[in-house]
Write a structure and sequence with these properties.
The complex is a heterotrimer of chains A (186), B (134) and C (139). With 186 residues, chain A is mainly α. Chain A is 75% helix and 0% strand. The relative contact order of chain A is 0.11. In chain B, helix 2 runs antiparallel to helix 3. The chains are: A mainly alpha (186), B mainly alpha (134), C mainly alpha (139). Chains in contact: A-B, A-C, B-C.
Protein backbone atom coordinates (compact mmCIF):
# COMPACT_ATOMS: atom_id res chain seq x y z
CA UNK A 1 0.00 0.00 0.00
CA UNK A 2 1.36 3.38 -1.02
CA UNK A 3 2.15 6.04 1.55
CA UNK A 4 1.08 9.62 1.01
CA UNK A 5 4.70 10.52 0.44
CA UNK A 6 4.95 7.97 -2.35
CA UNK A 7 1.85 9.41 -3.96
CA UNK A 8 3.17 12.94 -3.57
CA UNK A 9 6.55 12.03 -5.06
CA UNK A 10 4.95 10.19 -7.92
CA UNK A 11 2.64 13.07 -8.81
CA UNK A 12 5.44 15.63 -8.52
CA UNK A 13 7.44 13.55 -10.93
CA UNK A 14 4.73 13.20 -13.58
CA UNK A 15 2.58 16.31 -13.22
CA UNK A 16 4.36 18.52 -15.77
CA UNK A 17 4.37 15.86 -18.43
CA UNK A 18 0.74 15.05 -17.69
CA UNK A 19 -0.17 18.70 -17.99
CA UNK A 20 1.54 18.99 -21.38
CA UNK A 21 -0.01 15.75 -22.52
CA UNK A 22 -3.47 17.06 -21.68
CA UNK A 23 -2.70 20.47 -23.17
CA UNK A 24 -1.62 18.92 -26.48
CA UNK A 25 -4.90 17.05 -26.59
CA UNK A 26 -7.33 19.81 -25.58
CA UNK A 27 -5.30 22.82 -26.74
CA UNK A 28 -6.19 24.85 -23.71
CA UNK A 29 -4.10 25.26 -20.58
CA UNK A 30 -6.96 25.88 -18.17
CA UNK A 31 -8.80 22.80 -19.32
CA UNK A 32 -5.58 20.81 -19.20
CA UNK A 33 -5.05 21.86 -15.59
CA UNK A 34 -8.59 20.81 -14.73
CA UNK A 35 -8.05 17.46 -16.38
CA UNK A 36 -4.80 16.81 -14.55
CA UNK A 37 -6.36 17.83 -11.26
CA UNK A 38 -9.27 15.54 -11.93
CA UNK A 39 -6.94 12.66 -12.79
CA UNK A 40 -4.88 13.21 -9.65
CA UNK A 41 -8.00 13.17 -7.50
CA UNK A 42 -9.33 10.04 -9.13
CA UNK A 43 -6.01 8.31 -8.59
CA UNK A 44 -5.94 9.28 -4.91
CA UNK A 45 -9.59 8.49 -4.28
CA UNK A 46 -9.89 5.21 -6.09
CA UNK A 47 -6.41 3.78 -6.21
CA UNK A 48 -4.54 5.65 -3.49
CA UNK A 49 -4.17 2.47 -1.47
CA UNK A 50 -2.64 0.46 -4.32
CA UNK A 51 1.10 -0.20 -4.32
CA UNK A 52 3.05 2.78 -5.64
CA UNK A 53 4.51 0.65 -8.42
CA UNK A 54 1.07 0.51 -10.03
CA UNK A 55 0.69 4.30 -10.11
CA UNK A 56 2.29 5.01 -13.50
CA UNK A 57 -0.05 2.76 -15.47
CA UNK A 58 -3.11 3.62 -13.40
CA UNK A 59 -2.46 7.31 -13.71
CA UNK A 60 -1.93 7.15 -17.46
CA UNK A 61 -5.18 5.28 -17.91
CA UNK A 62 -7.07 7.74 -15.71
CA UNK A 63 -5.54 10.70 -17.49
CA UNK A 64 -6.43 9.30 -20.88
CA UNK A 65 -10.01 8.74 -19.75
CA UNK A 66 -10.20 12.21 -18.27
CA UNK A 67 -9.14 13.67 -21.64
CA UNK A 68 -11.74 11.60 -23.46
CA UNK A 69 -14.39 12.62 -20.91
CA UNK A 70 -13.59 16.19 -21.72
CA UNK A 71 -14.32 15.63 -25.39
CA UNK A 72 -17.50 13.71 -24.64
CA UNK A 73 -18.95 16.56 -22.64
CA UNK A 74 -21.26 18.98 -24.35
CA UNK A 75 -19.61 21.39 -26.70
CA UNK A 76 -20.84 24.47 -24.96
CA UNK A 77 -18.08 24.26 -22.40
CA UNK A 78 -15.44 23.83 -25.07
CA UNK A 79 -16.82 26.80 -26.90
CA UNK A 80 -16.66 28.95 -23.82
CA UNK A 81 -13.16 27.85 -23.07
CA UNK A 82 -12.09 28.57 -26.61
CA UNK A 83 -13.68 31.96 -26.40
CA UNK A 84 -12.12 32.76 -23.07
CA UNK A 85 -8.74 31.87 -24.40
CA UNK A 86 -9.25 33.90 -27.55
CA UNK A 87 -10.51 36.78 -25.41
CA UNK A 88 -7.42 36.68 -23.27
CA UNK A 89 -4.94 36.00 -26.03
CA UNK A 90 -5.06 39.64 -27.09
CA UNK A 91 -2.55 40.29 -24.34
CA UNK A 92 -0.03 38.14 -26.08
CA UNK A 93 -0.23 39.04 -29.72
CA UNK A 94 2.96 37.44 -30.78
CA UNK A 95 1.97 33.99 -29.64
CA UNK A 96 -1.49 34.42 -31.06
CA UNK A 97 -0.14 35.33 -34.48
CA UNK A 98 2.14 32.35 -34.53
CA UNK A 99 -0.75 30.04 -33.80
CA UNK A 100 -2.93 31.82 -36.33
CA UNK A 101 -0.29 31.35 -38.97
CA UNK A 102 0.00 27.70 -38.14
CA UNK A 103 -3.73 27.28 -38.25
CA UNK A 104 -3.83 28.13 -41.96
CA UNK A 105 -3.65 24.86 -43.85
CA UNK A 106 -1.83 26.34 -46.83
CA UNK A 107 0.66 28.30 -44.78
CA UNK A 108 3.96 28.66 -46.56
CA UNK A 109 7.05 27.08 -45.17
CA UNK A 110 9.28 29.54 -43.44
CA UNK A 111 12.24 30.74 -45.42
CA UNK A 112 14.82 27.96 -45.02
CA UNK A 113 17.54 30.62 -44.80
CA UNK A 114 16.07 31.86 -41.58
CA UNK A 115 17.09 29.57 -38.77
CA UNK A 116 14.41 29.21 -36.20
CA UNK A 117 15.69 29.62 -32.71
CA UNK A 118 15.28 26.86 -30.18
CA UNK A 119 12.25 28.39 -28.52
CA UNK A 120 10.45 28.82 -31.83
CA UNK A 121 11.26 25.28 -32.86
CA UNK A 122 9.94 24.04 -29.55
CA UNK A 123 6.72 25.95 -30.04
CA UNK A 124 6.29 24.63 -33.57
CA UNK A 125 6.86 21.08 -32.43
CA UNK A 126 4.37 21.43 -29.62
CA UNK A 127 1.81 22.86 -32.00
CA UNK A 128 2.49 20.05 -34.46
CA UNK A 129 1.99 17.46 -31.71
CA UNK A 130 -1.33 18.99 -30.79
CA UNK A 131 -2.36 18.92 -34.44
CA UNK A 132 -1.79 15.20 -34.85
CA UNK A 133 -4.95 13.11 -35.18
CA UNK A 134 -5.82 12.11 -31.64
CA UNK A 135 -5.02 8.39 -31.86
CA UNK A 136 -1.68 9.18 -33.45
CA UNK A 137 -0.94 11.73 -30.78
CA UNK A 138 -1.85 9.32 -27.99
CA UNK A 139 0.36 6.61 -29.44
CA UNK A 140 3.22 9.01 -30.03
CA UNK A 141 3.09 10.59 -26.59
CA UNK A 142 2.67 7.34 -24.68
CA UNK A 143 5.10 5.24 -26.65
CA UNK A 144 7.88 7.72 -27.36
CA UNK A 145 7.55 10.50 -24.86
CA UNK A 146 6.31 8.60 -21.84
CA UNK A 147 8.49 5.70 -22.98
CA UNK A 148 5.91 3.02 -22.32
CA UNK A 149 6.36 -0.26 -24.14
CA UNK A 150 4.03 -1.35 -26.93
CA UNK A 151 1.98 -3.62 -24.66
CA UNK A 152 1.45 -0.89 -22.05
CA UNK A 153 0.52 1.65 -24.70
CA UNK A 154 -1.96 -0.81 -26.22
CA UNK A 155 -3.43 -1.42 -22.80
CA UNK A 156 -3.98 2.27 -22.12
CA UNK A 157 -5.27 3.04 -25.60
CA UNK A 158 -7.52 0.01 -25.53
CA UNK A 159 -6.34 -1.34 -28.88
CA UNK A 160 -4.09 -4.10 -30.21
CA UNK A 161 -0.32 -3.88 -30.17
CA UNK A 162 -0.40 -3.93 -33.95
CA UNK A 163 -2.58 -0.80 -33.97
CA UNK A 164 -0.17 0.93 -31.62
CA UNK A 165 2.65 0.32 -34.08
CA UNK A 166 0.54 1.58 -36.96
CA UNK A 167 -0.51 4.72 -35.04
CA UNK A 168 3.10 5.36 -34.04
CA UNK A 169 4.47 5.11 -37.53
CA UNK A 170 1.67 7.27 -38.91
CA UNK A 171 2.31 9.78 -36.16
CA UNK A 172 5.96 10.06 -37.11
CA UNK A 173 4.96 10.44 -40.74
CA UNK A 174 2.40 13.16 -40.01
CA UNK A 175 4.80 14.93 -37.69
CA UNK A 176 7.54 14.84 -40.32
CA UNK A 177 5.16 16.37 -42.83
CA UNK A 178 3.94 19.06 -40.42
CA UNK A 179 7.44 20.06 -39.39
CA UNK A 180 8.71 20.00 -42.93
CA UNK A 181 5.84 22.23 -44.01
CA UNK A 182 6.80 24.74 -41.34
CA UNK A 183 10.43 24.68 -42.36
CA UNK A 184 11.64 23.21 -39.09
CA UNK A 185 15.22 22.01 -39.43
CA UNK A 186 16.32 19.55 -36.83
CA UNK B 1 2.39 20.39 -48.23
CA UNK B 2 0.60 17.43 -49.68
CA UNK B 3 2.34 17.92 -53.01
CA UNK B 4 5.77 17.41 -51.46
CA UNK B 5 7.28 14.05 -50.73
CA UNK B 6 7.65 13.86 -47.01
CA UNK B 7 11.07 13.06 -45.68
CA UNK B 8 10.59 10.90 -42.62
CA UNK B 9 12.24 12.03 -39.43
CA UNK B 10 15.42 10.08 -38.78
CA UNK B 11 15.78 8.43 -35.35
CA UNK B 12 18.20 11.22 -34.43
CA UNK B 13 15.69 13.88 -35.42
CA UNK B 14 12.99 12.08 -33.51
CA UNK B 15 15.24 12.04 -30.46
CA UNK B 16 15.70 15.77 -30.87
CA UNK B 17 11.96 16.31 -31.07
CA UNK B 18 11.53 14.39 -27.83
CA UNK B 19 14.38 16.34 -26.24
CA UNK B 20 12.68 19.60 -27.15
CA UNK B 21 9.42 18.34 -25.70
CA UNK B 22 11.30 17.53 -22.49
CA UNK B 23 12.79 21.00 -22.53
CA UNK B 24 9.33 22.49 -22.84
CA UNK B 25 8.57 21.04 -19.39
CA UNK B 26 11.10 23.43 -17.91
CA UNK B 27 9.32 26.37 -19.45
CA UNK B 28 5.93 25.86 -17.92
CA UNK B 29 4.97 29.14 -16.28
CA UNK B 30 4.95 29.61 -12.53
CA UNK B 31 1.22 30.02 -12.25
CA UNK B 32 0.63 26.67 -13.90
CA UNK B 33 3.26 25.03 -11.73
CA UNK B 34 1.63 26.43 -8.63
CA UNK B 35 -1.72 25.10 -9.71
CA UNK B 36 -0.25 21.68 -10.40
CA UNK B 37 1.34 21.69 -6.99
CA UNK B 38 -1.94 22.65 -5.39
CA UNK B 39 -3.80 19.88 -7.23
CA UNK B 40 -1.14 17.42 -6.13
CA UNK B 41 -1.46 18.50 -2.50
CA UNK B 42 -5.23 18.15 -2.66
CA UNK B 43 -4.91 14.65 -4.05
CA UNK B 44 -2.37 13.69 -1.38
CA UNK B 45 -4.67 15.13 1.28
CA UNK B 46 -7.41 12.85 0.01
CA UNK B 47 -5.17 9.86 0.57
CA UNK B 48 -4.05 11.15 3.98
CA UNK B 49 -7.64 11.61 5.01
CA UNK B 50 -8.75 8.22 3.84
CA UNK B 51 -7.91 6.58 7.21
CA UNK B 52 -10.60 8.89 8.53
CA UNK B 53 -13.00 7.23 6.13
CA UNK B 54 -11.96 3.97 7.70
CA UNK B 55 -12.65 5.42 11.14
CA UNK B 56 -16.17 6.31 10.18
CA UNK B 57 -16.94 2.66 9.58
CA UNK B 58 -16.60 1.81 13.27
CA UNK B 59 -19.04 4.69 13.78
CA UNK B 60 -21.65 2.82 11.79
CA UNK B 61 -20.76 -0.31 13.66
CA UNK B 62 -21.11 1.69 16.85
CA UNK B 63 -24.63 2.72 15.94
CA UNK B 64 -25.48 -0.80 15.03
CA UNK B 65 -24.15 -1.77 18.43
CA UNK B 66 -26.44 0.74 20.04
CA UNK B 67 -29.40 -0.69 18.17
CA UNK B 68 -28.56 -4.17 19.29
CA UNK B 69 -27.90 -3.18 22.88
CA UNK B 70 -29.89 -5.10 25.38
CA UNK B 71 -29.95 -4.52 29.12
CA UNK B 72 -27.67 -7.52 29.27
CA UNK B 73 -25.10 -6.04 26.94
CA UNK B 74 -21.73 -5.27 28.43
CA UNK B 75 -20.45 -1.84 29.33
CA UNK B 76 -17.74 -1.84 26.73
CA UNK B 77 -20.32 -1.73 24.03
CA UNK B 78 -22.02 1.21 25.69
CA UNK B 79 -18.80 3.14 26.02
CA UNK B 80 -17.96 2.29 22.45
CA UNK B 81 -21.37 3.44 21.22
CA UNK B 82 -21.05 6.72 23.12
CA UNK B 83 -17.59 7.37 21.75
CA UNK B 84 -18.82 6.67 18.25
CA UNK B 85 -21.78 8.94 18.73
CA UNK B 86 -19.47 11.75 19.81
CA UNK B 87 -17.36 11.22 16.70
CA UNK B 88 -20.51 11.09 14.61
CA UNK B 89 -22.05 14.28 15.95
CA UNK B 90 -18.68 16.00 15.67
CA UNK B 91 -18.73 15.08 12.02
CA UNK B 92 -22.17 16.58 11.51
CA UNK B 93 -21.31 19.63 13.54
CA UNK B 94 -18.24 20.40 11.48
CA UNK B 95 -20.18 19.91 8.27
CA UNK B 96 -22.74 22.34 9.54
CA UNK B 97 -20.41 25.06 10.70
CA UNK B 98 -18.14 24.85 7.69
CA UNK B 99 -19.60 27.72 5.78
CA UNK B 100 -19.47 30.69 8.10
CA UNK B 101 -16.43 32.43 6.67
CA UNK B 102 -16.19 33.14 2.98
CA UNK B 103 -19.05 33.50 0.54
CA UNK B 104 -20.13 30.34 -1.26
CA UNK B 105 -19.25 30.10 -4.96
CA UNK B 106 -22.86 29.34 -5.77
CA UNK B 107 -23.90 32.60 -4.19
CA UNK B 108 -21.32 34.48 -6.22
CA UNK B 109 -22.51 32.80 -9.40
CA UNK B 110 -26.13 33.62 -8.69
CA UNK B 111 -25.43 37.20 -7.65
CA UNK B 112 -23.12 37.88 -10.59
CA UNK B 113 -24.18 40.33 -13.27
CA UNK B 114 -23.78 37.61 -15.88
CA UNK B 115 -26.52 35.03 -15.26
CA UNK B 116 -25.75 31.29 -15.09
CA UNK B 117 -27.64 30.73 -18.35
CA UNK B 118 -25.07 32.82 -20.17
CA UNK B 119 -22.55 30.04 -19.66
CA UNK B 120 -24.76 27.30 -21.03
CA UNK B 121 -26.57 29.14 -23.80
CA UNK B 122 -25.26 27.78 -27.08
CA UNK B 123 -26.78 30.60 -29.04
CA UNK B 124 -25.14 33.20 -26.87
CA UNK B 125 -21.81 31.52 -27.40
CA UNK B 126 -22.45 31.62 -31.13
CA UNK B 127 -23.26 35.31 -30.83
CA UNK B 128 -20.06 35.87 -28.89
CA UNK B 129 -18.06 34.18 -31.59
CA UNK B 130 -19.79 36.31 -34.15
CA UNK B 131 -19.09 39.60 -32.39
CA UNK B 132 -15.56 38.80 -31.24
CA UNK B 133 -14.52 38.28 -34.84
CA UNK B 134 -15.58 41.71 -35.99
CA UNK C 1 -34.00 -0.19 32.19
CA UNK C 2 -31.59 2.69 32.46
CA UNK C 3 -29.66 1.22 29.57
CA UNK C 4 -32.69 1.00 27.34
CA UNK C 5 -33.48 4.60 28.13
CA UNK C 6 -29.94 5.61 27.30
CA UNK C 7 -30.16 3.74 24.00
CA UNK C 8 -33.29 5.69 23.12
CA UNK C 9 -31.60 8.98 23.97
CA UNK C 10 -28.69 8.04 21.75
CA UNK C 11 -30.98 7.16 18.89
CA UNK C 12 -32.95 10.35 19.39
CA UNK C 13 -29.78 12.41 19.31
CA UNK C 14 -28.56 10.84 16.13
CA UNK C 15 -31.96 11.37 14.52
CA UNK C 16 -31.70 15.01 15.57
CA UNK C 17 -28.26 15.27 14.00
CA UNK C 18 -29.71 13.85 10.82
CA UNK C 19 -32.60 16.32 10.80
CA UNK C 20 -30.33 19.28 11.47
CA UNK C 21 -28.30 18.29 8.51
CA UNK C 22 -31.31 17.77 6.30
CA UNK C 23 -34.05 20.12 7.43
CA UNK C 24 -37.52 20.04 5.91
CA UNK C 25 -39.20 23.28 4.79
CA UNK C 26 -41.08 23.58 8.07
CA UNK C 27 -37.87 23.33 10.08
CA UNK C 28 -36.14 26.23 8.33
CA UNK C 29 -35.79 29.56 10.06
CA UNK C 30 -38.13 32.34 8.98
CA UNK C 31 -35.23 34.23 7.39
CA UNK C 32 -34.06 31.21 5.38
CA UNK C 33 -37.61 30.54 4.22
CA UNK C 34 -37.94 34.08 2.95
CA UNK C 35 -34.79 33.86 0.89
CA UNK C 36 -35.57 30.41 -0.40
CA UNK C 37 -39.25 31.17 -1.03
CA UNK C 38 -38.97 30.44 -4.78
CA UNK C 39 -38.08 26.88 -3.82
CA UNK C 40 -40.82 26.48 -1.21
CA UNK C 41 -42.96 24.05 -3.13
CA UNK C 42 -40.11 21.75 -4.07
CA UNK C 43 -37.85 22.07 -1.07
CA UNK C 44 -38.82 18.79 0.50
CA UNK C 45 -38.03 16.95 -2.71
CA UNK C 46 -34.49 18.33 -2.93
CA UNK C 47 -31.63 16.06 -2.06
CA UNK C 48 -29.88 16.67 1.29
CA UNK C 49 -26.73 18.02 -0.32
CA UNK C 50 -28.80 20.31 -2.55
CA UNK C 51 -30.52 21.68 0.52
CA UNK C 52 -27.16 22.24 2.13
CA UNK C 53 -25.93 24.22 -0.88
CA UNK C 54 -29.12 26.25 -0.99
CA UNK C 55 -28.86 26.99 2.72
CA UNK C 56 -25.32 28.23 2.19
CA UNK C 57 -26.73 30.70 -0.31
CA UNK C 58 -29.42 31.77 2.14
CA UNK C 59 -26.79 32.33 4.82
CA UNK C 60 -24.76 34.55 2.50
CA UNK C 61 -27.86 36.57 1.67
CA UNK C 62 -27.45 39.31 4.32
CA UNK C 63 -24.02 40.11 2.90
CA UNK C 64 -25.44 41.03 -0.50
CA UNK C 65 -26.57 44.33 -2.03
CA UNK C 66 -30.23 44.78 -2.91
CA UNK C 67 -29.44 44.28 -6.57
CA UNK C 68 -27.60 41.03 -5.91
CA UNK C 69 -30.43 39.82 -3.71
CA UNK C 70 -32.88 40.37 -6.54
CA UNK C 71 -30.72 38.45 -8.96
CA UNK C 72 -30.37 35.55 -6.57
CA UNK C 73 -34.14 35.45 -6.08
CA UNK C 74 -34.74 35.37 -9.82
CA UNK C 75 -32.20 32.66 -10.51
CA UNK C 76 -32.69 30.38 -7.57
CA UNK C 77 -35.43 28.24 -9.02
CA UNK C 78 -33.69 27.63 -12.31
CA UNK C 79 -30.47 26.91 -10.46
CA UNK C 80 -32.05 24.25 -8.26
CA UNK C 81 -33.37 22.47 -11.33
CA UNK C 82 -30.04 22.13 -13.09
CA UNK C 83 -28.17 18.87 -12.91
CA UNK C 84 -25.13 18.73 -10.59
CA UNK C 85 -23.03 18.45 -13.71
CA UNK C 86 -24.46 21.64 -15.22
CA UNK C 87 -23.92 23.51 -12.00
CA UNK C 88 -20.36 22.29 -11.71
CA UNK C 89 -19.63 23.41 -15.26
CA UNK C 90 -21.08 26.82 -14.58
CA UNK C 91 -18.95 27.21 -11.44
CA UNK C 92 -15.88 26.51 -13.52
CA UNK C 93 -16.95 28.91 -16.25
CA UNK C 94 -17.62 31.52 -13.63
CA UNK C 95 -14.11 31.12 -12.23
CA UNK C 96 -12.70 31.59 -15.70
CA UNK C 97 -14.89 34.60 -16.23
CA UNK C 98 -13.64 36.14 -12.99
CA UNK C 99 -10.06 35.52 -14.07
CA UNK C 100 -10.51 37.84 -17.06
CA UNK C 101 -9.49 41.46 -16.82
CA UNK C 102 -12.26 43.84 -15.65
CA UNK C 103 -12.46 45.32 -19.16
CA UNK C 104 -13.06 41.93 -20.73
CA UNK C 105 -15.59 41.02 -18.08
CA UNK C 106 -17.39 44.22 -18.88
CA UNK C 107 -17.24 43.44 -22.61
CA UNK C 108 -18.77 40.03 -22.03
CA UNK C 109 -21.51 41.44 -19.84
CA UNK C 110 -22.26 44.04 -22.46
CA UNK C 111 -22.43 41.35 -25.15
CA UNK C 112 -24.85 39.38 -23.02
CA UNK C 113 -27.08 42.41 -22.67
CA UNK C 114 -27.08 42.98 -26.41
CA UNK C 115 -27.80 39.35 -26.99
CA UNK C 116 -30.66 39.33 -24.50
CA UNK C 117 -32.41 41.92 -26.62
CA UNK C 118 -32.47 39.70 -29.71
CA UNK C 119 -35.59 37.82 -30.70
CA UNK C 120 -35.80 34.05 -30.66
CA UNK C 121 -35.42 33.75 -34.43
CA UNK C 122 -32.44 36.10 -34.56
CA UNK C 123 -30.73 34.03 -31.92
CA UNK C 124 -31.43 30.87 -33.78
CA UNK C 125 -29.95 32.28 -36.93
CA UNK C 126 -26.76 33.11 -35.08
CA UNK C 127 -26.46 29.57 -33.90
CA UNK C 128 -26.93 28.24 -37.40
CA UNK C 129 -24.30 30.59 -38.79
CA UNK C 130 -21.64 29.90 -36.21
CA UNK C 131 -19.56 26.79 -36.64
CA UNK C 132 -18.64 24.96 -33.49
CA UNK C 133 -14.98 23.92 -33.35
CA UNK C 134 -14.49 20.38 -34.57
CA UNK C 135 -12.46 17.98 -32.53
CA UNK C 136 -10.89 15.07 -34.24
CA UNK C 137 -11.42 12.06 -32.06
CA UNK C 138 -9.61 9.81 -34.47
CA UNK C 139 -10.57 6.21 -33.76
Amino acid sequence: MATSKELSDFLAQVERRAFKQAAYAVRDDHTALDIVQDAMMRLAEKYGTRPATEFPMLFQRILQNAILDHFRRNKVRSLWTTLFSSFSSGDDDEEYDLLETLAGEGAKADDPEVTLDRAQTMKLIETAISRLPSRQREAFVLRYWQELDVAETANIMGCSQGSVKTHCSRAVHTLSALLQAKGVQL
Amino acid sequence: MKSHVTKELTPQQLAKVLQLLDDSLKQIDHKTLRELEQSRKQAVAVLENSPRVAESQPAVTGLRYALQLSPHGNYRRWVMALVMLTVFSGFFGSKFLRNNGSIDTDTLVLASELPPEAYTDKEFVAWLEHTSRL
Amino acid sequence: MVRTYLALVILGLSAFAQAANDPGWAQLSEADRQVLAPLGSEWDSLRPWQREKMLNIAHDYPKMTTEQKQRVQQRLENWSRMTPYERENIRKEYQQFKALSPARQEALRHTWQEYSKLSESERHKLLMDAEPPEYDLGN
